[in-house]
């Protein structure tokens, strides 16, 4: 039987809450469910098991990153939407959660972010704080009500909206790989990335609201 550390047990337990946080994030973006409630529940249970196994068995950041992004896109198929919105929602959700994780890790004194080798972060305190902050963030983002109608955004605007989180992810990867940067510089950089993606939420919500009002005016 595989021997698990206390940190790994805490990760397994708190990741149940993490799966619920992802569910709340999905509700920020999507309004109409296309799958049955039981199927939706099973997909989130499957996501929880999938990520827990990847973490316990592999625990390499780049593998976890790709696995989470693909899993998020997969979870979006529980809801009625377009491919463009599925990709955008997965990127934004992952980036915001990643920024929160990095800020908590840096604040707890961890400054070693190996992308291609095993992650050795073991702060139980940081793990719990990360989940709490992530939940607070998703509660804040639930105030954006127009994002659920984002399918009305024309294709010409989608490229600009998706470009922001995609570029943010690239910059965060560069911060992972950079050498010689002080912790303060990295914290500021990650905070700016978090604020930029919050601004993307606000921009997306505002564009959707404006387009919705324009459509209603035309109908009248």
How would you characterize the overall build of this protein?
The protein is mainly α and 220 residues long. Helices cover 75% and strands 0% of the residues. It contains 7 helices and no strands. It has helices at 6-29, 37-57, 61-76, 83-107, 124-141, 155-177, 183-219. Helix 4 packs across helix 5 (124-141). The protein is globular. The N and C termini lie far apart (67 Å).
In short:
The protein is mostly helical and 220 residues long.
Helix/strand-derived category reads mainly alpha
Tally the beta strands.
0
Percent range of helical residues: over 70%
In N-to-C order, the SSE pattern is HHHHHHH
Shape category: globular
- From the alpha carbons, calculate the radius of gyration and give it in angstroms: 18 Å
Major β-sheet profile: none
Q: What low-confidence regions span 5 or more consecutive residues with pLDDT below 50? A: none
User: What would the average pLDDT be, to the nearest integer?
Assistant: 87
Q: How far apart lie the N and C ends?
A: 67 Å
Tally of separate helices: 7
How big a fraction of the residues is strand? Answer: under 5%
């Amino acid at each position: 039987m595989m021997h698990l550390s206390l940190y790994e047990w805490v990760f397994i337990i708190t990741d149940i809450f993490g799966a619920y946080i992802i569910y709340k994030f999905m509700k920020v973006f999507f309004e109409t469910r296309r799958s049955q409630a039981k199927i939706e529940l099973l997909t989130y249970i499957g996501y929880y098991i999938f990520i827990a196994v990847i973490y316990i068995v592999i625990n390499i950041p780049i593998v976890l990153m790709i696995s989470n992004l693909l899993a998020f896109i997969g979870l979006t198929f529980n809801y009625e939407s377009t491919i463009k919105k599925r990709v955008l929602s997965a990127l934004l959700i992952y980036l915001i959660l990643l920024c929160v994780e990095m800020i908590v890790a840096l604040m707890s004194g961890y400054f070693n972010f190996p992308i291609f080798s095993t992650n050795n972060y073991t702060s139980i305190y940081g793990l719990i704080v990360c989940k709490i902050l992530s939940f607070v963030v998703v509660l804040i983002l639930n105030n954006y009500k127009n994002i659920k109608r984002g399918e009305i955004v024309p294709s010409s605007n989608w490229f600009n909206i998706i470009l922001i989180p995609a570029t943010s992810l690239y910059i965060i990867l560069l911060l992972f790989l950079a050498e010689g940067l002080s912790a303060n510089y990295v914290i500021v950089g990650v905070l700016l990335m978090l604020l930029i993606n919050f601004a993307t939420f606000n921009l997306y919500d505002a564009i959707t609201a404006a387009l919705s009002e324009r459509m209603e005016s035309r109908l009248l």
